Protein: SMI1/KNR4 family protein
Organism: Pseudomonas syringae pv. syringae
Amino acid sequence: MISFTEKNSPANVNEIESICKELGISEKNWLRKFWRECNGAVLEDQIVIYPTDQILERNKTYEIDINFPEYILIGDDSGGGLILIPKKGLEKFYFIGSGDPFINDAEVFDSIEQLTAYAMADVDSDSDSDSDSDSDSGNIVSVAEIKPKASDVLKIKKDFNLDYSIALLTKKLEKKDEIISENVKLIKYKSALKLHRQFVRFSSNP
């Protein structure tokens, strides 16, 4: 059974219909049912399911309509992994890296419970393979070897949960060894660091 770290109140019916119509989601889609129960949630302190007021922006940021036109982005794992579901048809959950343009590369699950269990097991596996991962804290700093595009800055902002403005984050990414995020756990952002390694790196605390 999934543990809800955070769980919002149910979404307004009219709001659900409006958002689903704009996204082209079918009437029996899983997301409709989820929003009727809670308008966004955090599962197991890691998996985020977006509320109605965020989902359009997230899909636009990751250009889902261009890269995966038959799918909708519904959430992420707080570290660079995206969760997609088909707009129509079978109820399946796709777990894919935010920089991967091929849906066939995704891990596919029959339920959000299975996907969450997989994501949690993956974190545990990373921890087992590196005994210092759980306790390794440090800063995420800029590499500044390549000038980031606006789309890169947006994805970095989302994947590392940053509050900076796009303009300020861009300036930081263009300067070498600028602190992007301070005193974070390496294990939480391993996948995001791997994905954005041309722009940022992890610097362990002494």
About this structure: The first strand starts at residue 4 and ends at 7. Residues 127-132 have pLDDT under 50 and may be disordered. The two ends are 39 Å apart (CA to CA).
